[in-house]
Amino acid sequence: MLFQAAEPRPCLTFNFMKFTALCVLFCIPVPLHSAIEVSVNRDRGLAAACQVIRAKRAAGEQGPAVITVDEARLEIASPLTLEAQDSDLTIRAAAGKSARLRGGSLVNGFTKYQGEILQADVSSIVKPGMKLRQLLFGDQRMTLARYPNVDAADPLYGGWAFVEAFPASGAPAGHDWKSTLFVKPQDLRTWAHPEDVEIDIFAQYGWWNFVMPVKAMDANTRKLTLAKPCSYDLHPHNRYHFQNALEELDAPGEWFLDPRTKTLYFWPPVPMEGKEVRLVTLSSFIEIKAGAKQIRISGLGFTGCNNTAITMNNTTDCSVLGCTFDKVGDFNGSAISLNGGSNNEARSNEIGYTGSTGISLNGGDRITLTPAANKATNNHIHHMGVFNKNACGVAANGVGHIIAHNHIHDGPRMGVQMSGNNIIIEYNHLHHLCLETQDGGAIYTGGRDWLGGRGSSWRYNRIHDVVGCGQEATGLKHPWFTFGLYPDDNTGGVDIIGNLVYRIAKSPIHLHNSRDCLVENNILADGGAYQFDLHGWRKEDSFFKSHFDSMVKGYESVSGQPAWKAMRGMDLHPRDAIRDDGTMASGDIIRRNIMFSNSPDVKYGDLRNVTAKWNTIDGNLVWNSGHPIGTGLNKTGPDQGPALLEEKFASSKANETPKGWGFNARPQPTLKLIVVDGALQADCGTSDDPKQKHTTFHGPDVPAKAGAAYRARFKIKSTEPTSSVQTSLAMFKNGGGYWQGKSNVLAVTSQWQVVETSATLPAQGSAVWKPWMTDFWLRLDCMNETGQILIDDVRIYEAAPLNEWASWQAEGWDKSSLVADPLFMDAAKDDFRLKPESPAFKLGFKPLPIEQMGQIDDEWRPRM
Q1: In contact, 398 and 366? CB cutoff 8 Å
Q2: What residues pair up with 375 in beta bridges, in sequence order?
Q3: Cα atoms in the Cβ-side hemisphere of radius 13 Å centred on 739
Q4: Predicted confidence (pLDDT) per residue in 255-279, tens digit
Q5: 3-class secondary structure, 649
Q6: What Rg, from alpha-carbon coordinates, does the chain have?
């Protein structure tokens, strides 16, 4: 199947004079109804204005309706609900004026409590069942009383406590991973009402946070128990803070609401004079119900609500234009939700400091691929996810949405996250993302149902400074393990074209078992570890096993639909996904890209479980500022000299572990590594302990020469029909560090086979080399839960090295690619325009429309 890169789309213009002339020429009747106009002021609120319009229409007045908000600051006590009868309505600020709607209830009557802390009776404000989490002081959010306190000097990475590590013996027997954790001695707390307290924790791998109710803390054992289980396991070293306890109100800007007495406690960060205190009690500002059409909300400001500020449910041709959203939404509250319907738009809005996501788009029919055509265009979205760290700038679910020309930055996780088909993400400027989480991307999707992503385009986006944050025993790490473009978990059929991606923690693009994706004409620059990743699954992998049923169900739900027959890659059933070489990732094409780095420690590509038989990487321009192109592949030439290690286990004592061999990881204490019938037999097993996830064992030390290449050759088989085994060469010194060569992934059967694994050790003087690297050893990992693997006739040789680029090409990759300076105008200053003499043009590379990436001027864009 042929792929063709899409050209930048020209702007469409509308000639109003020509249209008017045509109307006259063909005698098209033009409605002449004047608008029904009603103003909102101190005497008449929004709801009352809507009632006036309804009454006028009921009395026979026709035509569009306009509600003009004249008040600069308008208090909203309850949501405005609009229905189908309110169609053809505009709600806007008065010309030349700003109008801000506020959803906070004013708190007065403060008296001194103790020290700098004030108190006020809010029983008239707080209604039964309310759980309020936002207090505004002069339109600024205050901090719910917490421990540890916010670190003003480092608000993202400071001010955290960390879950205590288990003792050397591991987790206690029967440990409840989702409901209990252990706190460090310095973090023990005493609360009069622990049932009020919440823990805000980045559980398990720190993908995002969870706010969970506390049940109890045992001062003797230091065990904390949650009132209900967390969705993810609570791991040692997870970062967290406690919140919502009067005892933790000990810093300026903190507050607490006692649910029993309805008393608000508050420590003002500055004197109260001239400042308002507002408890956010409003659920949302505007809710538009199904059937409404052509409702336009423009030029208004919104501050303070607990749910999503504006929601449109199954509406048509409705829009939010040029509005400002500031500090709206609690944990699940966003600025704008276009939920279903068709042809709705959020355009040119200023959105900041949302509790959760900025804008969400939903709609369309995935079975028939009928598009919703909902749009998020030209918005400025920043500092989203104040409470919910899984929030993104724009979230799109369904079919046929458009996300274009947005400027999205300073978020805890993704910039744009999509799930669905035929979704266009183009001309956006995305940066400073994944600031608080790991394993994310500026643009992200997945395909666990086999359908995800297909027909979508990610094109002409400018992406940079995607940071990432990891949780380790030594504290938080940043930048850390995150990506620019991230088609995850079997994503299929996405066109990734013309993007500029640079300064990314791990790699500019990570394709995780992607299928049928086209990656073309992109500039992928300055990855922290690689310029791109392409990782596939195998039949033995847990990903494949856990998602197989979902893939089959997804495929069969649409396989007979006419709209899907033309979709790329849909002629293959998931049951046939595993290719003849044991790999699954196929149909990916990575071509005519510029891969640029300026660091000798950054490698070109990271490939796992993919082959050139089923994927194409070629025609790219590759440059690492004159440094050798590192690929992580270390193919070796002939053996040099006699074997450095030669071991046949027939002469070893039966039922014992031979000298020099041992476990790196032993998931279960009963597992053995012993000689059986003249071969070394290792029991396979797994566990929930992240440090002992599967069986790993090693051979004896072999003297190492810095920069030398080595090959291990041995026989291997399994007691199971198939076992997944990884082999590599590695080095370790207690207190010094760890180094491992690239793993060789094997599908081991019950028949003996001879295999090899090789590596080139770090050269002395390189950034990776360390003085302790004097010995290396053979490492084997068995991923199976049961069974044994057996090895014999182990031989290790020094070998003639091949450079990594030659090894890469020998594997069938980049055979016609070019290693040369792309000649950017000034990459050091982020100017990635190409000089006219750039060698990229010889490969067919087309200049990127960099000046079009990001927001554009239009009549709706707020002037801040």
Answers
A1: yes
A2: 345, 402
A3: 23
A4: 999 999 999 999 999 999 999 999 9
A5: helix
A6: 31
Helices (H), 429-541: none
pLDDT of residue 33: 55
Q: Which amino acid would we find at residue 143?
A: T
Which string of b and e fits 307-330 if b means at least 16 CB within 10 Å?
bbbbbbbbbbbbbbbbbbbbbbbb
User: What's the pLDDT tens digit per position in 164-201?
Assistant: 999 988 999 999 999 999 999 999 999 999 999 999 99
Mode of pairing for the β-strands spanning 300-303 and 99-102: parallel
Rounded Cα gap, residues 41 and 55, in angstroms: 19
How far apart are alpha carbons 821 and 345 in whole angstroms? Answer: 43
Tens digit of pLDDT for each residue in 720-731? 999 999 999 999
- Rounded CA-CA distance 19/274 in Å is 54
pLDDT band at 744 (very low <50, low <70, confident <90, very high): confident
Six-digit token string for 328: 């709206």
427, 848 in Cβ contact below 8 A?
A: no
Q: In which residue are the tokens 């199904």 written?
A: 290
Instruction: Locate the DSSP E strands across 386-461.
Output: 394-399, 402-404, 407-409, 416-421, 424-426, 429-433, 441-446, 457-459
Write the CB contacts of 132 (distance below 8 Å, at least 6 apart in sequence): 126, 257, 279, 280, 281, 306
DSSP single-letter state for residue 551? H
Cβ contacts of 93 within 8 Å, gap of 6 or more = 68, 69, 99, 298, 299, 300
Contact 235, 195 (CB under 8 A): no
* Residue 348 in tokens: 């040119």
Q: How many residues does the chain have?
A: 864
Closest CA to 561 of 365, 279, 424: 365
Look at residue 850 and give its three-state secondary structure.
helix
Give the angle subtended at the CA of 398 by the CAs of 587 and 331, to the nearest 5°.
115
Percent of the chain with pLDDT strictly greater than 90: 88
Name which of 424, 350, 150 is nearest 267 in CA terms: 150
Q: Are 431 and 472 in contact (CB under 8 A)?
A: no
Report the alpha-carbon distance of residue 150 to residue 158 in Å, rounded: 7
Distance CA 340, CA 312 (A): 8
Indicate the pairing of strand 135-137 with strand 140-141.
antiparallel
Helix (H/G/I), strand (E/B), else coil: 552? helix
Which amino acid is present at 663? F
Retrieve residue 483's tokens.
């990506």
| CB-based burial, 103-119: b 16+ in 10 Å, e otherwise | bbbebeebeebeeebbb
| Ramachandran area for residue 426 (φ above 0: left; ψ -120 to 50: alpha; else beta) | beta
- 825 Cβ partners below 8 Å, 6+ apart? 831, 832, 833, 834, 835
Read off the DSSP letter of residue 804. Answer: H
Cα→Cα distances 198→32, 126, 175, 228, 280, Å: 59, 20, 21, 11, 19
For 55-77, what is each residue's pLDDT tens digit?
Answer: 999 999 999 999 999 989 999 99
Supply the pTM of this predicted model. 0.86
Instruction: List the structure tokens of 592.
Output: 């005519």
Instruction: Tell me if 204 sits within 8 A of 470, measured CB to CB.
Output: no
